[in-house]
Write a structure and sequence with these properties.
The structure holds two protein chains of two kinds. By secondary structure, chain A is an all-beta fold. Chain A has no helices and eleven strands. In chain A, strands 2, 4, 5, 6, 9, 10 and 11 form a seven-stranded mixed β-sheet that branches. The radius of gyration of chain A is 14 Å and the shape is globular. Helices cover 0% and strands 53% of the residues of chain B. In chain B, a hairpin with a 5-residue loop joins strand 7 and strand 8. The radius of gyration of chain B is 14 Å and the shape is globular. Chain B starts with a strand and ends with a strand. Classes of the chains: A mainly beta, B mainly beta. At the A-B interface, strand 4 and strand 5 of A face strand 5, strand 6, strand 10 and strand 11 of B.
């Protein structure tokens, strides 16, 4: 298994450009999520999904869209990039959508480092 | 809304010292609790988690944590740290109502050889 994969590893955008960060997992996990990591801020939840066709907002959803058309993929779209979105983005997945069950360890991808000029 | 507070932002210890990192959360319902570690240049890995049952949980590399429900706390401990424990540590909480997983701001641990 490849686990959780993210592409690209690095990206530089200009203000106003749009792009999609890709995330895929091959573990048949129900739960997937996107976080951004900024110095001194920890990881902040952007959006998450408890299964195909279901998404919900996290702590900092503004400026980002997601969709979950398949179990494997959970792309994150930046609609109009802003310098405040410069960050490292992590995708994560876990086996069970319903918490309270044993399979809710999150597996993280390697991250995408995004710079918006 | 749930939140997670990690009291220590930066901790410096000598090898063999004992470690305790604080984590408090605010959420009135049932939760699952986690500690993750991020070694320099790597992505996050699970150290341990509280799911149910015994509030004292043991994880990898000699770490343990105790869930004290009355204090909304889940502090991480290790009796004797090693230089290789230098990393950033994150506490996380998952509520059982909407399955949102929220992280604390992290504690950067630096172990002096």
């Amino acid at each position: 298994n490849a686990g959780v994969t993210q592409t690209p590893k690095f990206q530089v955008l200009k203000t106003g450009q749009s792009m999609t960060l890709q995330c895929a997992q091959d573990m048949n996990h129900e739960y997937m999520s996107w976080y951004r990591q900024d110095p001194g801020m920890g990881l902040r939840l952007i959006h998450y999904s408890v299964g195909a066709g279901i998404t919900d907002q996290g702590e900092v959803p503004n400026g980002y869209n997601v969709s979950r058309s398949t179990t494997e993929d959970f792309p994150l779209r930046l609609l109009s990039a802003a310098p405040s979105q410069t960050s490292v983005y992590f995708c994560a997945s876990s086996e069970q959508a319903t918490s309270g069950r044993a399979g809710d360890t999150q597996y993280f991808g390697p991250g995408t480092r995004l710079t918006v000029l | 809304a749930q939140s997670v507070s990690q009291h220590n932002h930066h901790v410096i210890l000598s090898e063999a010292a004992s470690l305790e990192l604080g984590c408090n959360y605010s959420y009135g319902g049932t939760v699952n609790l986690f500690w993750y570690v991020q070694y320099p240049g790597q992505h996050l890995q699970l150290l341990l988690k509280y799911f149910s049952g015994d509030p004292l949980v043991k994880g990898i590399k000699g770490f343990e944590a105790e869930f004290i429900k009355s204090k909304f706390s889940f502090n991480l401990r290790k009796p004797s740290v090693q230089w290789s424990d230098t990393a950033e540590y994150f506490c996380a909480v998952r509520n059982r109502r909407d399955d949102k997983i929220i992280f604390g701001k992290g504690t950067r641990l630096h172990i002096l050889p």
